[in-house]
Amino acid sequence: MDTSTTRTRTLVLAAVFAAAIGVAGCKDTTTGAAGGTGSSGGSGDKATSSGPVAGDGHAVSPLDNPDGTKPGLAPITSTADKARARALISRVATKGRGPKTGYTRAQFGYAWMDSAPGVPYAHNGCDTRNDVIKRDGTEVRYRSGSTCVITSMVLADPYTGRTIDWTKTHASAVQIDHVMPLSYDWQMGAAQWTKDKREQIANDPLNLIPVDGPSNGAKGDSGPASWLPPSTVIRCSYAVRIAQVSLKYALPVTAPDKQAMLDQCAG
């Protein structure tokens, strides 16, 4: 074989090899965590939202998650499940909303206590916030030396239908929603409860969902007649979760709120 032919074949092989490396290297999988430099495209120092979530296989329907220990909040879509949802919501008691007089967050214990009585995850050595982030997040990473403090994760946010690449340096991008807000609870009867029972509902995973921070801020202490998640497909599930908390704690909702809950599961 002459020298020119050898040189030509060598150049062709080199080009093929380079192209193969380029294809294999177009997606960095070295970090594999939210907020890193891998496939999520995050910068590593802030939470970002990507496009709408087609579906979150990690999430479970509230109808199949009566104690809140399974992850996420999957949509309720079938006619049969919507009928089950309406039957559950119909059991919720109603009454007028009382005054907010005397309410403070401290009435429900300090935030994210690990010692709340009678709830899953209590006394496991991790605070409630990290427990529910671990429950609902994927690609979870912890602070060095810790099995509790989460520094990054990916959340399929049920309220907006978007994926959030979250890091602890921008913690407020994901907030923990009390599905039945604590001040709402206070006005609907919790003002007369024992401190233990108030601490319980404040830290019960059934009443807690990690969600998009701005959406949680927009909700405030509103009931479902005044505020619903932006993602319409999740609204029946949201109503069911409120009903589950209401029934567990014998805590009424207002008549307009109950009607709004039933409306989300119609059809």
Question: Largest sheet, described in full?
Answer: 4 strands, antiparallel
What's the shape? globular
Number of strands: 6
Number of discrete helical segments: 8
**Structural class based on helices, strands and sheet pairing:** alpha+beta
State mean pLDDT (0 to 100 scale): 85
- Portion in helices: 25-40%
Residue ranges: pLDDT <50 for 5 or more in a row?
1-46, 50-54
Pattern of helices and strands: HEHHEEEEHHEHHH
Strand order of the largest sheet: 1-4-3-2
Percent of residues in beta strands: 5-15%
Q: Report the C-alpha radius of gyration, rounded.
A: 24 Å
Give the termini distance in whole angstroms: 77 Å
Mind explaining what this structure looks like?
- The chain is built from eight helices and six strands, in the order H-E-H-H-E-E-E-E-H-H-E-H-H-H.
- It has helices at 3-24, 79-90, 128-136, 182-188, 195-203, 213-219, 235-248, 255-264, and strands spanning 48-52, 138-142, 150-156, 162-167, 174-178, 208-212.
- The chain is an alpha+beta fold.
- Strands 1-4-3-2 form a four-stranded antiparallel β-sheet, covered by helices on one side. A two-stranded antiparallel ribbon has the order 5-6.
- The chain is 34% helix and 12% strand.
- It is globular and about 50 Å long.
- Strand 3 (150-156) and strand 4 form a beta hairpin.
